[in-house]
Amino acid sequence: MATPTRTPTGFSGLDRPAGWRRPRGFVSPAALERPLGSLPGVGASLERKLRKLGLETPADLLGHRPHRYEEAVPELRIGDLVGEEEVVVTGIVESVRSRRARGRLTIQKATIASAGASIPAVWFNQPWLVERLPVGSEVRLRGHVRRGEFHVRAYDVSRVSATADFAPVYPASEELPARRLRELVEAVLPEVRFLPDPLPARLAERERLPSRGDALHALHRPGSLEEAERGRRRLAFDELLVLQLGLARRGREREAAVAPSLGTPGELTERYRRALPFVLTPEQESAIGELDVDLARRVPMQRLLQGDVGSGKTVVALYALLRAVGAGSQGALMAPTETLAEQHFLTIEGLCADLGVRCVLLTSGLPARVRAAAQAELAAGDAQLAVGTHALIQEHVAFHDLAVAVVDEQHRFGVQQRQALSGGRSPHVLHMTATPIPRTLALTVYGDLQVTEIARPPANRRPVITSWVTESRSSEAYRRLRRLLEQGRQAYVVCPLIERSERSEARAAEEETERLRRGELRDFRVGCLHGRLRPVERRKVMARFKARELDVLVATTVIEVGVDVPNATVMIVQEADRFGLAQLHQLRGRVGRGAEQSYCLLVSRAKEELTGAGRARLEALVRTTDGFELAEVDLELRGEGQLLGTRQAGLSELRFTRLRADRPLLERARVAALELVDEAGPLDDEVERLFGGADDAALA
């Protein structure tokens, strides 16, 4: 069977085949937004299966990027087949039948003939093939010969699709195989060739990018891997440009806003430096210097302070807050959880009191009377610093004169929440995170922020020694723990859940606490901390642990960030394979905060029971304590869309982008976005509609 002529895939005139002409009519982009149920052959059942994969429109199908392509293989005549290498053959169906072998296994076998030679072709568990391969039909098969039979991996009738060189292989499911997805994509692919292109022509020409329609066609039906990659990069450029347009617009809006100039550092920050029980590291001094420059300007500061666990970010953040107080204004620190807000408050309140600075805690878990009193102090200006959760951004909370806001673990907040903190004003904002972000990802997510890194911990900190054992050896972990407890050290034991769930085998913190009190740690004082405790109870447990009234704290991930007990030098993470890599690194950061050697023991199921990604996470934790290196590993394992949460900064929309490989493309998109935003009316109505709310995508 002759291979059908492929539709031309010329790129924006750069290599368009001679004689090819674009039809006059354009396909309306709205046609790609209709329900998939409107396509021929897509019934309610198939539509439900597609929806489970996040595919609801033809546009979604076109955005379903192949995760690989079939390799190029030779096409041979049936009579020339030798060996077991993968090949393509073409022939006529002479007979076809299906039989049950054993259990649920069925075998389909067809005799395929061509040029006087024939061979049995074999499939498994595809009984419908008897109807799809009628006798006398021409078929193209891709597979390999084994014991005189042709074992089929893909087949085509009447057209070349699944058996072609570089045929796309899509992420699929058990309900919806890749072959069916390929058929659906091919059904809508003709509609994209002549879509209007949202990119200004001069920009596409300068960047030597194919048209969007050509790029989609090349992605789903490439003539080579190079062509597929070229199409992907054009589509990735669109995604990155949308993000960067939103970031650039927000940056321009911020430049037009006015913030209070806090002048130069004064007497309060000098007293703060003298009150610290340690000398600031060079990295901390450098970060403070950058803050001083920002705070002296009238353009609102927007800076991201990121550093590994234990690197001393809180000291720098408090400096920024005290700069506001020293200038006669107020500062606010917002944390994503009550536990973290409480820990920040416990950390800074005593020091602030020594400096004569009134600091209040404001969380939804406080009694109404206490919360109302804190709000009144903030409104009157009697409280100079506020530490809290989302309670700080409720509409009825008013600051007397907010000049500096610090948003901790800022990727956990939506942009609307961060903006609401200012209540319509324009304070200086320091975004702080202890979750190291790959540098390329930081450029994408926080492209409108200045980034400051504190990459190294204080000199007296020793790297935490991390080990990984399976549950069968967990008793050994507690023997080692007892020895360290007898030397006066303290420890954490982390469990995935609060109480045992019928659907999960995960240990519960409360259950594990009772077990340890009766068993391995019966001679020691064991406490329990989890998110269902009332705030006053949580603070009481943490205060007892800090005061060394407890030897071991069994906890859930409420201790992931913010908890600082230098005498705690051991952490055991039960069922560590259930946690993400960044989360495990954050948990490990609760130890190693003093001068003593600290240890982290990861306990998991048997290694053969873990997925490849699960093993890779734990191996990475053992291999390095560098949070930035681990962030790169996490990016590779989880992908861009999940690393910071599926709703973070439009990353769930990065279907075509490979951030680690596309750093140069990202830089080009940033330059283009700034140019477009600076021009008067750079995007016409059609472009605005196709790019669909760049601000929302970049800032959601």
- At the fourth level of CATH, the homologous superfamily of the domain at 465-624 is P-loop containing nucleotide triphosphate hydrolases
Number of helices: 24
Largest beta-sheet characterization: 7 strands, parallel
Q: What is the CATH topology of the domain at 465-624?
A: Rossmann fold
The coarse overall form would be: globular
**What's the overall average pLDDT, rounded?**
81
DSSP summary, beta strand count: 20
CATH architecture descriptor text of the domain at 465-624 = 3-Layer(aba) Sandwich
CATH class of the domain at 465-624: Alpha Beta
Distance between the termini: 52 Å
**Class per helix and strand makeup:** alpha/beta
Radius of gyration: 31 Å
- Helix proportion: 25-40%
Uncertain residue ranges: 1-26, 411-418, 502-506, 641-652, 681-700
Q: Strands of the largest sheet, in order across it?
A: 10-11-9-12-13-8-14
Task: Determine the strand fraction and express it as a percent band.
Answer: 15-25%
